[in-house]
Amino acid sequence: MFAIERKLQIGSWFDYGMFAQTIMLAARARGLHTCPEASIASYPDIVRRELNISRDYTIMCGMALGYADGEALVNTFQPDRIAVEDYATFYD
Asked: Which tens digit of pLDDT belongs to each residue from 29-70?
């Protein structure tokens, strides 16, 4: 579970995102898979109650960590993606 102190400013949220991504990259380097679970932030009261997390923290996301089962139907889903050029502008 990832939570951040409420008193921290927006830049800290950016840092926290990089921290979470670093955990994901480190896991892959060690043969593990991850699945960030942002939807869990929609249920902060349940998370706080079950994990005894203070209201001084904002629940950001959860993350599953382990070995992916490539044969499982849920792991075969490939959503459509738009091309990077459709949402980003690059300048020389």
From this structure: 999 999 999 999 999 999 999 999 999 999 999 999 999 998
CB 48 within 8 A of CB 55: yes
User: Edge-to-edge strands of the sheet including 33-37?
Assistant: 2-5, 57-66, 33-37
Helix/strand/coil for 55: coil
The Cα–Cα gap between 65 and 53 comes to 21
Rg, Å, the chain Cα set: 16
CB-based contact 77:31 (threshold 8 Å): no
pTM of the model: 0.77
